[in-house]
Amino acid sequence: MEKTSQYSVLSTQYSLSRLALTRILVSLLTHEEAIVAGIGNTNFDLAATGRRPQNFYMLGSMGLALPIALGGAVAQPERRFFALEGDGSLLMNLGCLATIASVAPRNLTIIIWDNGLYQITGKQHAATSSVTDLVGVAKAAGIANSAWAADEADFTRRLSQALITDGPHLIAAHVDDAPGAARPERDPVLLRDRYMRGIQKATSNE
Question: What is the pLDDT of residues 185-197, one digit of tens each?
Fold first, then answer.
């Protein structure tokens, strides 16, 4: 009962800027790390930070950012991969957390933007707005290095640690519901081919 009460307080504080946190993420990447961004505002904000060839912008494939990033992390263990996902999309595919915990890729970090809404489809409330704590779910699935970022400084600190320590890591943040800042091209072949070229040559992340 105590956990539910504590989370209910947290779930009302969707004040962090999703775009600002996305910019922090990109600014810390210096070794051609790959980012797989889920649908909607998650990849819209990533597109606004600049078109890195190592960014994969998903179109329509809800809930698959984590599995795609996991596949890349397993195939290229020398490169760090980031799965960037919204709360609604993760709720659609919670089983992937157990799979990631089982595989335990040291080079994978999951970042979750939680605003308690299915924002793109009309701002319907998601389970995370009331009863579901995604960090708690991730820990229960076996991803021990899972935590909420309290603010931008805490997010930066946790992300910096994830870049130099073994994962998998999961960092979640309660974010705003601002409109996406940009749009990637709606051309699946172009997005796929550019990403594949971007990760073609694996590089050291040390």
Answer: 889 899 999 999 9
